[in-house]
Write a structure and sequence with these properties.
The complex is a heterodimer of chains A (309) and B (355). Chain A is mostly helical. Chain A has helices spanning 2-9, 16-20, 24-53, 70-77, 82-113, 118-126, 133-144, 149-156, 170-197, 200-208, 213-224, 226-241, 245-250, 262-272, 276-304. By secondary structure, chain B is α+β, with helices and mostly antiparallel strands. Chain B folds into two domains: 4-233, Rossmann fold; 240-346, OB fold (Dihydrolipoamide Acetyltransferase, E2P). Helix content of chain B is 24%, strand content 34%. Chain B is elongated. The interface between A and B is medium-sized, with 20 and 24 residues.
Chain lengths: 309, 355
């Protein structure tokens, strides 16, 4: 009784949705519509479709049949390639991520220490970022191909290193190198901007406190740019788990399966073998992997990211 | 503790010279305030002492060492910045301990020094907080704590109170002065606020355009400003300046002002009869009387303790600071008198003091 009495005293708000869709709400929806249609048609529906597809054996032609979780079961238990592909993907991600962050941070620090030409170097290092990755990969493929520029360079230096794209170990390194060349510029510009935004007074205070250049970098600048560093790391990890273009152009996953990654496996199963259901299942495994890794990074960030700057 | 001597210090940025040979010395334990309008070079001079700016020419000596080529941390100074510059990712304790850790002092020593400084500045309860969790005044105190733990020979303050509200600024002024009395360390303090300079300094250095205009104790600078710039800069409200020609009005000396009433002059102006002169009168030396210089009330600003009157005499705006409670209204004509013995006389061309 008491409760009822009290609730009566509180003015009942009208249901929000009904009120919202009067007047202004409809106008807003009308203006949102062009974007909304695009998102629903090309993002939401395909995502939903791929979930559904991953539980079928759809082969592009013919009708799909619901097969439950058997695609996933097959992937994990019987597919001879899956674990190799997963290992390749993680290997690529770890190596590329570590090298990318170290190199871009190094370049960013170097650029921010320059007295002149900062803007030029930023542009130069950013150039590969707006060059199509396919084109970049083709050029590097031609460099690394047997008898290509790389081979003749190695020969002239008397280094016994040739045909790296045909080498089971080195092919992946060639892919990583290409990816670094193409991807380092974005993080360089990102980190450089963050470094330049660290207020000079912190560094001056640190100089008075007796911090060497090395101390100032590790103890002041790096912690202060840690949010940007974290953002760069997460984004780079996500894109590297999805790696496809370089591998498609340079190695086609080979030699053997030595450079086949999840992204390439999706393409192979879906568009070469027309196993759309199976490819969708791999795509969702990739999604889960990205989510898990990103969640892990978010968990770890509490230990090293400072948002107080 | 140490003496600080600056000899003929010059600062150039390329071809642009911003400090033109500054010479000033702070005695051991002295509180010296560098004051001047923005762009006068006071902060640059402080940063040169700190080692954050190179010295283009001249010498800076701390204790008995010439520090021109020493790194900031080798100069035995500590600096408090306008923005406090507390490392945002470190707790108060870590901020204060940072320099000691870099100097590889023992854990016990660091802890003891930080605790001592925290006790002096009443920071003990805040040691585990981050700068973002502190108020402006607390941050200011931490910045001072960070300076204290280093036990420097010279403290440098770069406009440390300008980010605080008026009430807190007054409180911190007292705290810094108390700290100075307690530590007895040489302090160099930069501000654009003449009130801070007056209240805190043992000696004031008034700067303008990269030159020193005057060095002296607060009262010296106030009572006998070297030129009309210093006279106008020190004191609030500012000194009134009236330009005119000295005439002998039948025994009494007067200043004849274009398009305005004449102002009586003291006898010391007698040697300037027939010449032009700039009369300087502090607002508190002007009062209302039955007869005197004719003027009109424009604005009345009661501050509580006294009342500031914005007045118009001829074409000249004058400010008077009156102690007594008065009832006047805007537009009302009144007569002014002033204490001619306290008048300041300046050369209108050079601005230099004449009496």
């Amino acid at each position: 009784m008491m409760l009822g009495k009290h609730t009566d005293m509180i003015a009942r708000p009208r249901p929000r949705s009904r009120k919202w869709f009067r007047g202004e709400g409809w106008t807003a929806l009308f203006f949102l519509l062009p974007g909304l249609i695009g998102i629903v048609l090309f993002l939401v529906l395909p995502i939903l479709a791929s979930i559904v597809l991953s539980f079928t054996n759809w082969q592009l032609l013919g009708s799909a049949r619901f097969v439950g979780i058997s695609n996933y079961v097959r992937l994990i238990t019987t597919d001879p390639q899956f674990w190799t592909v997963l290992r390749n993907t993680l290997f690529f991600t770890v190596e590329y991520l570590v090298l990318n962050i170290i190199i871009s941070l190094g370049l960013a620090t170097w650029i921010s220490s320059l007295k002149i030409g900062q803007r030029w170097f930023r542009v130069i290092f950013f150039l590969p970022t707006f060059t199509p990755l396919i084109a970049v990969a083709m050029v590097w493929m031609l460099i690394f191909t047997s008898g290509g520029l790389f081979d003749s360079l190695m020969a002239s230096l008397s280094v016994p290193l040739a045909g790296v794209l045909n080498d089971r170990t080195l092919a992946m390194q060639a892919v990583v190198l290409t990816s670094i060349w193409a991807g380092v510029g974005y993080n360089t510009v990102l980190f450089n901007a963050a470094l330049d935004m660290v207020p000079a007074t912190y560094l001056e205070a640190a100089r008075i406190d007796g911090a060497t250049a090395w101390d100032r970098f590790w103890k002041i600048r790096l912690p202060l740019i840690s949010p940007t560093l974290f953002f760069g790391t997460v984004m780079t990890a996500i894109t590297s788990l999805q790696v496809f273009d370089q591998i498609y152009v340079m190695t086609k996953g080979g030699p053997g399966s030595s450079t086949a990654t999840l992204g390439y496996a999706i393409y192979q199963r879906g568009f070469q073998n027309f196993q759309m259901g199976y490819a969708s299942a791999i795509a969702w495994v990739m999604f889960a992997l990205i989510m898990a890794l990103t969640a892990l990074q978010f968990w770890f960030q509490r230990k090293w990211v400072h948002y107080d700057a | 503790m140490a003496k600080l001597t600056i000899r003929n210090a010059v600062k150039r940025y390329g071809a642009l010279e911003v400090l033109h040979g500054i010479s000033v010395a702070a005695q051991d334990g002295e509180f010296v305030v560098l004051v001047g309008p923005s762009g006068c070079g006071k902060s640059t001079l402080l940063r040169m002492i700190a080692g954050l700016e190179s010295i283009s020419d001249g010498e800076i000596e701390i204790g008995d060492r010439i520090v021109n080529d020493l790194e900031p941390n080798e100069r035995d100074i500590a600096m408090v910045f306008q923005s406090y510059a507390l490392y945002p990712h470190m707790t108060v304790r870590d901020n204060m301990a940072f320099s000691l850790k870099l100097a590889r002092r023992s854990k016990q020593e660091i802890e003891r020094k930080v605790d001592d400084a925290a006790a002096i500045l009443d920071l003990a309860a805040l040691l585990d907080r981050y700068p973002r969790q502190l108020s402006g005044g607390q941050r200011q105190r931490v910045a001072m704590g960070r300076a204290i733990v280093r036990n420097p020979a010279v403290f440098l303050f770069d406009e440390p109170l300008s980010n605080l509200d008026a009430k807190l600024r007054m409180q911190m002024r007292t705290e810094i002065k108390t700290l100075h009395q307690r530590l007895g360390t040489t302090m160099v303090y930069v501000t654009h606020d003449q009130m801070e300079a007056m209240t805190m300094a043992d000696r004031i250095v008034v700067m303008r355009g990269g030159h020193i205009e005057q060095i002296g104790s607060p009262l010296e600078v106030y009572d006998a400003p070297a030129n009309s710039f210093v006279a106008g800069f020190i004191g609030s409200p500012s000194m009134n300046f009236i330009d005119g020609t000295v005439v002998d009005g039948g025994g009494a000396l007067e200043l004849e002002v274009a398009h305005g009433p004449r102002w009586p002059l003291p006898d010391k102006a007698r040697s300037y009869v027939g010449r032009s002169l700039r009369l300087g009168v502090r607002p508190e030396h002007i009062g209302i009387s039955e007869q005197g210089v004719q003027s009109q009330v424009i604005i009345i600003e009661p501050t509580g303790s006294d009342t500031h009157l914005q007045l118009q005499t001829g074409q000249q705006s004058i400010v008077a600071a009156v102690r007594d409670r008065i009832t006047v209204s805007p537009g009302q004509p009144i007569q002014l008198r002033y204490d001619a013995q306290k008048a300041h006389l300046f050369d209108p061309t050079s601005g230099n003091r004449l009496n």
